[in-house]
Amino acid sequence: MSAKKTKTLLLASIAIFLAISLMLFPKESLEASVRGMNIWWNVVFPSLLPFFIVSELLISFGVVTLIGTLLEPLMRPLFRVPGVGGFVWAMGLASGNPAGAKLTARLRLENKLTQIEAERLVSFTSSSNPLFIFGAVAVGFFHNPALGILLACAHYGANLFVGLIMRFYMEKENRQAQKELELTRQDDKSGPKWLTVLYEEHQKDGRSLGKVLGDAVQSSVQTLLIVGGFIILFSVINKVLTLVHFVDLVGYVIGLLLVMLHLPVELGQPIISGLFEMTLGAQRVSETTQSNLLQQVIAVSFLLGFSGFSIQAQVASLLAETDIRFKPFIIGRVLQGLFAAGLVIVLFQPLYIERKPIVFFETVIPVFNQIDKVQTTWGQFLQISPYITLTMLIIATFIWTYRQLNKSTKKSYR
């Protein structure tokens, strides 16, 4: 049997298994689906949508190209990617997964990156946003905002290390592609003025302001609908695998590996859950009573870096529109998980045990003591987030309907 036929048989078997499991566990599957829907509706959609829309506008108006010219001296020597990679990295850090992959794919489609540069970039621009790390994980799961600093430093530090390693990815193969791309760019080596850069990029785009805004909203909502589908799907898959004791079995095997690493075997099952959906895994790790705080934070930091199969599937769907290969992204996730776990071990003592209150001015309250402020901010966000989601879905539906009616009207006059 050929490899392609074997792959087809395997995928068909998995689909049949999931269909049978849904029929055997309808109530549990529904509950898992609702849980995934709540995560998307209350957190993912309202937190990512503004960044997606703003990034689309910045690309359309040439701001990203301008930022690229300014960051070229930094990004090229460090990561061997163009300056526009700095914009992708910053937006990925600020907005979280899968913003880095979406922007990388967009820039690749516009030929601002070579294939190998895009693969390098997507491997280290995937991260959780600060609101999730501080609000959901540190405060929501551990009830300890001081852990937010530790987790954030380990998480974003691991991003940096992955980028420095991936700069060597297919170095020789990228040189020729980079030369060809430079010829198509036809950059003025003397350096064009910033206003000229903005004007030329906007002229290349050619869309009116209303068209740009409508496309930005519609494209962002469509992407987030796909993201929501993956979140719900993997929430159900995770629940089904738990019910059929697959998580218990694999968790036992992982537990043997954890013993070798001097970690409690009880973390095995939560880690397996986190490999599918990192939010659920992080919550289960925080509830494990047989492990100490350092062991829990190591496990959570690894899961945040690895991102989970749910986010990886979202990224795969975004990259499918381009020639960007998925393998470098997977390598980056494994490396980031390992680096993040290692950085927690190194930074736990100075950033958590021996920490001192951080003050920006003498009259400012120490950051580590602002637990009530962090909890209030996160709670307020969760209160207004459903209304943001509903409003933007209505606007996107209106835009789509308006454009469909215009198309129908134009066809009727022909």
What would you say this structure looks like, in words?
With 414 residues, the chain is an all-alpha fold. It has 18 helices and no strands. The protein has one domain (25-356, 367-413). This is Sporulation protein. It comes from Alkalihalobacillus alcalophilus ATCC 27647 = CGMCC 1.3604. Residues 43-140, 225-319 form the Nucleoside transporter/FeoB GTPase Gate domain.
Q: Report the total helices.
A: 18
- Any idea what the radius of gyration is? 23 Å
Q: What portion of residues is helical?
A: over 70%
Shape: globular
Backbone structural class: mainly alpha
Strand and helix layout:
Layout: H1 3-24, H2 26-60, H3 63-79, H4 84-95, H5 99-109, H6 115-124, H7 130-141, H8 146-166, H9 171-185, H10 194-205, H11 209-243, H12 246-260, H13 268-276, H14 278-286, H15 293-306, H16 309-319, H17 327-353, H18 371-413
Helix pairs in contact: 2-11, 2-18, 3-4, 4-5, 5-6, 6-8, 6-17, 7-8, 7-18, 8-15, 8-17, 11-16, 11-18, 12-13, 13-14, 14-15, 15-17
